[in-house]
Specification:
It catalyses: a primary methyl amine + O2 + H2O = an aldehyde + H2O2 + NH4(+). The chain is mainly beta. The chain contains 10 helices and 32 strands. The longest helix is centred in the N-terminal third of the chain and has 14 residues.
Amino acid sequence: MAAVKEMKTVTASSQVHPFDQLSSEEMIMVSQVTRQAKPAMDIIFNTITLKEPNKQEMLSFLGWDTSKPRVSRIEREALVVALERPSMKCYEGIVSLDQEKLTSWVHVPDVQPILTMDEMLEVEQLVLKDEKVIAECRELGITDMSSVFNDPWAIARHVSYPGRGRRLMQALMYMRTCEDDNQYVHPLDFVPIIDLGMMKVIDIEYIKPKNSKFARPTIPMQQHNFLPEFVGEENYRKDVKPIIVQQPQGVSFSVKGNEIDWQKWNMRISMNYREGLVIHNVSYQDGAEKRPLFYRLSLSEMVVPYADRDPIHARKHAFDVGEYGLGLCTNSLALGCDCLGSIYYFDAVFNDHNGQPYTVPNAVCLHEEDHGILFKHTDYRNGRAHTVRGRRLVISHIVTVANYDYGLYYYFYQDGTFEYEVKATGELNTHVLAEDETPEGYGTLVAPQVNAQYHQHIFTMRIDPMIDGFNNTVGQVDVKRVPYPTGHPMNMMGNAFTAQTTMFRDTHEAQAIPSYETSRVWKIFNENNIHPVTKGPVAYKVTSDCQVPLYAQDDSVVGQRAGFAKKTIWVTPYNENQMFAGGFYCNQSSGEDNLESWMKEKKSVSNTDVVLWVTFGMTHLPRVEEAPIMNCEVLTGVRMQPCNFFLRNPAIDVPPTNKKINHSVDAKIAPKEAGCCSTKL
């Protein structure tokens, strides 16, 4: 993972760490080694990525496990997922980069690996050249195929083509009335089905009007655009003054390769084709002690199920991690637009179907930002006020998956708090209605004949904790009234309530949903480390502000495939083969290999190496104000705070700031009279 510097205070190192993403040179080596080992096979390289090292070895390598001699060297390996032409059989290979040798090659039957950008671009062009598609467009009055566009989507599970024997996609069709026009307000009423093995449109399906006198809807032609050339410079607000974020003395973090130090935090980052940004080996410096917190943090899976009961729309439940890959959908970020201030960028490297690397420049943004008041107190007796402003470290990337864009943010705070946040923006997915047709309670008309369907965005984060050590227990905390009425000796005034903690001891217990009645939260405990003051185990508290149920039926197609969305909290014993909540081969899956299925067998999760899965999301009932483009919907998905972990507020040593430091001015005073700070703006 290459780094791009935007400030002089940061240094970079070229030394390869076991967690570092594969370099371009390593990817080339892997593809060459694989082809040389399998000369008779016509190979499509679906993905080439780092095979992450064995965790037990890494705990020793990182210095956390001192029970045996420290591991000083980790073999560097790559995982290859490949398809063979013309059979489209799937193979998994392991390449040792140290030995430059293919050490494993296994056929994996009845699976379909992730859909790649190469395939989606091929499908997009294939559809436009298909005679059946051209004929459908002509019937709708379209003669210029250059005005027709399509979004290739995963097929989910098609009733006419069951199983995973054929590699399938569906294309959602649109048109544009001019270059750069917003295609999502001109949807078409048919969906081509594509066999990627044959590279052929094998069927065309129609979204037929309901309760309408029309056999087919006409194409809505009214424009709804948001790009500057359509809005017009003369229509922009004239009263927006610049806000300038500056750090004249440089940033407070340092970077060495992919290792980040910020105040008391230390961590490493990597990028992969699937999860995108991953945070490794997170620790916090507590006085003289460096305390481990998290081995690995990542967004494991997400699903976007749509509500319309039409069989075609029921297939619309995108697994953006497991079907398309957040890494493969990552944007190249623009300085001053996507990130503001003094920015440190990291590049990302992925592979094409030929096994050749390509780089996404500025894929990851690292910066720090003001976060308001950290703490404050005013002594009302003498009027003395003490205020300390806080800041946070932000590590982020932005992905575009067809119509939707997601900003994905890892926040680290000065008091030891960690947050994961999603900002959903982009354009609503739409379909066309006949002139006399209504959404029938399953969507919102955002323009004439343009329906934005009800849907959900549900995310599952995988948290591999090591709270003060690598053996942890997750517990549930419920606040309850005491079981005694007012006037009882145990509740004389009727005001008593208490908190009850239930430790999850096995996987059957370790499944939970929110409770409004009990203000439910969860904690990750280290039962081996007892806090000297509270006399209880040290812990980190886990909360989420965005908890939603999956509204689809449990036995629906999406209910079977996205079982992870049925609960907020799951806890599993660590298993290196269980990384993705929707299963490793999520594309066209049936649901037999996912987080929900892993929980069926009762296993211990008590005081051992565990993984916590936290599900969060939003139920999206579109508004007209979200068209033609949607303002960010912010989801604070996971917040983890130290809870009886430190001896006192760990941020008590953050120095206070003042107007001389941050150059704040009184806006009521004219700039020339604003005092000593005004000339420095």
